[in-house]
Model the fold of this input.
Amino acid sequence: MKPTEVRPIDQYFQTFNQTHQNKTNRIIQCICLPLLLFSIIGLAWAIPFPHLGFLGTYNGYINWASILIAVLIYYYLKLSPMLSYVMLLILFAFSYGIIELQQWEGTGGPALAFTSVTLLIIAVAGLIIGQRKEKLQHVLVLNWKLLLIGPLWLIHLLLKKANIKY
Done:
């Protein structure tokens, strides 16, 4: 890449910054984007995974969420290694939270799928409310690529405040 070329991740962040200038919307994004990601991983976790004999004793460690996490981290790694490492740590924390919800379900709590769908609805509603606060009328909720980049954008903002290059 030539020194004058802008990395794709920087282009995404520039687009995100241009479409998220309202302070209230930025606060909503800071809450709803992680909530959206958590709920999607929770839904993937709740989908039954087939028993694969060749995995042996490791069969319980693989599920649809682990495959989703692997794909996300690979995509993020291609965009920015540093951001992908931080995101991996965050996804580990999300996984721990989902395991706790799953254990709560086992002791009589709500089903993981129900909790995840509820959080998903709250997150999407929050994102839509935030979008209405912006002067530009667009439907970012339907732009999946920017939704994938959203959590990285939040991490990028935190790293930028700490003067850490990404």
